Amino acid sequence: MQNILEIDGISKSFSDIQANNDISLYLRQGQIHALLGENGAGKSTLVKIIYGIIKPDHGSMILNGKLYDPNTPEVARNEGIGMVFQHFSLFESLSVLDNIILGQKGNQKKDSILERLDDLQKDYDLQIDVNKIVATLSAGEKQKVEIIRCMLQDPKIMILDEPTSVLNPSEVEKLFNFLRKLSKQGMAVLYISHKLHEIKELCDTSTILRNGNVVKSCDTADVTINELAQLMVGKAIDNKIKLSQPKQERVLDIKNISYTNPDIYGTSLKEIQFNVNFGEIFGIGGISGNGQTELMKVLSGEVGLNDGNQILYHNEDISGLDINERRQREIVFVPEDRLGHSAVSSLSLSENLLLTNLWDHNFFSNGVIDTNYVDEKTSEVIEKFNVQCNASGSLASSLSGGNLQKFVVGREIIKMPKLVVCEQPTWGVDVGSASLIHNYLIEISNSGSTILIISQDMDELRSICHRIAIISNGVISKPYDAKRITPEDIAIEMAK
Amino acid sequence: MFKLQKKETIDQSSLYTVPLIAIGCSLIFVFILFLLIGKNPVLAIFIIFVEPLLSIFGLSELIVKATPLIIIALGLSIGFRAGVWNIGAEGQFTIGALFGGATILAFYPTSGIWILPLSFFIAIIGGILWGMIPAFFKARFNTNEILVSLMLTYVAILFLSGMVYGPLKNPDGFNFPESRLFHDSGTLPIIFPGTRAHIGFLMALLLAGLMFYLLKRHKFGFHVKVSGESLRALVFSGKSTNYMVYLSFIISGAFAGLAGVIEVSGPVGQLVPAIPVGYGFTAIIVAFLGRLNPLGICFAGLLLALTYIGGEAAQIKLGLPNAITGVFQGVLLFSLLAAEAFTNYKVTLKKMRGNF
Q1: ipTM above 0.90, yes or no
Q2: Contact residues on chain B for A340, CB-CB shorter than 8 A
Q3: CATH at residue B152
């Protein structure tokens, strides 16, 4: 097999950060190649260079034997490079077909596009109703639309950025089958991920990046998952601290919560009922979009409930309280989205610390912010939770996803809260940071905090929870013992 | 074809360079304009932008015009930072002038130092009430605050006319549509004798200082900042989205109302239908030219005041139409938006393909 793309000695720095340092890698025809690395390792920069979004400082690329130096993504597409981004760029209110036609260059006839679309769907099992409105599609279907748009341009190389982060297990399996088919037909695939078992299962070869350098390029079959993880993180991952037994004392008792979502595409909650005991870590699993965000907002008080719904916290009904009144009762919240929800990227870390402490009089005198105190507390979080940043005055946007998440979680659990409610605490976070965050959560639960985790990552829930329930279509299942729940149980509950 | 692309890094110095570039471009534009209509551009620019600064009279008038602009713009800047668009400050200004003026007239000819503070208070209440209307509709029915606040401006102006033609008309005024002249207790003290420069300007500077401190150090400023960046984060911090809508309109309404009563108890000295002369709209330019920063707003207020005075001078000395003020202000806003766009975006040339 011949090299279709050769990357030779690519370097790129942003002011004082060396994002890519002398990176070389080869993509062969018919090969699925994994690009593996923690957040901030330089994967995105490298991909942006290949796709013509960023110009490298040094180094060259050879595509099909010719020097390749794209100035824009358009050049990259014309040269046969297709890209499926992690975040979709679709028009939600238009139909699938409109979105596909809008993505094509030039003035191709609608009929000829339809014809090729037909062939494509047959050849690759990419069946989708093209008349559906995109907003009504699931994440997996939306990704299919992106892939179809990309395939219609006859790419020779397909780049996928974290494609499984929004998919459920059966959708992942379908995606993998599709990618295998592509590679059989001779296409090269560059697969970016930090999910190790996926890479092990799917990819022929891997390149592992760390701090902008290539740590290793190898055949995936020659390394174990543990070795991959260590190459990626650079040190052995700490073993999990042991969970201690919770007491039989109810901290949180949710009685029949129903919530009608005003958004017609959102999920409504139906008679949610569960309870969490003192010192327990309780997990709520499920595929995204099944009511997790709504449940999080109801628990935090960001949306109100109708009368008659009860959230009992130490036998007090807190359903009528706002988010800061709940925080005063030593409950903390970590919502899923750290960009624009749990943190604001254009604010400094100290200002982001203040975001969840506006109720606390220690931070103010007569409403005037005590900046020294805020900076002191911020530095404490940075130090204790090993947040990589310049100073407490650094903008949140200057931190990598994993570091910002450590900060956002650390900001809350440094208060030694009585109850932690968090959603996707390790979403889009590298393995090293994820394991640190898990350890913090277990630590505070061992010292008497109660924790509720809403997450799509079933492995995460099974490894750190005492009990797990599954949410599906706004309905919650009975709780399972985390040690005894089987993949079959999960599949059945998710399909309800 | 041209294409705008967002820059990845934005130079911090753009805070100062953008307004300066905008002013420079506007001057070049009026230079060419004067050339085209056959006036000596150097002389015209000198008369409009320099001469008013060379006399005590010019400087005192500058202060008089800058006062309402600065006060209104300070109030508007809060909403603009938070993403709440009050375009109806002119209306809130008018209602403030009416409420404050009516209070002064109600106590004619009683004297007392409490009359002005009371009328200020009533005027602020009036401005807030007028601002609460778009805020309420926005919060309750999610209407567009730009439209509602703008349309209410015309209601306010007609309301003022109605009052001045009717109940507030001067009983000894030969049926002219204007109120009595305010008595001494209803007039603002003058800073420099012989001019119209009144203590309202000092109040404007004081308010700017206060606003600067609140935005930088107070919880309130923090909420404003968060609200402008992300409403979800604002809710997460414990405030509802409607909180910021109401707060923005309360503050901008209060400031515009205050500017209104300062205008009538200062330079005007009575209620006339022509009190609203566009300060409320010009203040929008002031707020943005000042980069929504209280200090910047003071400078921008003085500059825009200069265009009013210079425009009058150009009318008298060069026979130019008064519209020159509006033209310059329009070009300035346009250049400002353009300069801002070029700072945040870069222009790339894209080849046109035949099949488009």
Answers
A1: no
A2: 229-230, 232-233
A3: 1.10.3470
Residues of chain A positioned with their CB less than 8 A from the CB of B222:
351, 354, 358, 369
Chain A residues in contact with B220 (beta carbon < 8 A): 367
Of B219, B232, B235, the CB nearest to A364: B219
Domains of chain A and any CATH numbers: 3-233 (3.40.50.300), 250-495 (3.40.50.300)
Cis peptide before B52 (omega within 30 of 0): no
Q: What is the pLDDT of residues A34-93, one digit of tens each?
A: 998 876 678 888 998 999 888 899 999 999 888 999 988 888 888 899 998 877 788 888
Q: Do the bridges between strand A419-423 and strand A368-369 make them parallel or antiparallel, or are there none, so unpaired?
A: unpaired
Looking at chain B from residue 191 to 230, which residues have their Cβ under 8 Å from any Cβ of chain A? 217-220, 222, 225-226, 229-230
Nearest to B237 among A337, A346, A358 (CB): A358
Nearest to B236 among A323, A347, A369 (CB): A323
Residue A481 to residue A281: CA distance in whole angstroms: 11
- Tokens 């699931």 correspond to A138
- Which of the four pLDDT bands, split at 50, 70 and 90, describes residue A238? low
Question: Cβ(A426)–Cβ(A397) under 8 Å?
Answer: no
Confidence band of B356 (pLDDT split at 50, 70, 90): very low
On chain B, the residues whose CB falls within 8 A of the CB of A337 are 232
Does this model's pTM top 0.80? My answer is no
Token pair in block for residue B189: 């003290």
Into how many domains does chain B fold?
Answer: 1
Domain span at residue B65? 61-345
φ, ψ for residue A117, nearest 5 deg? -60, -40
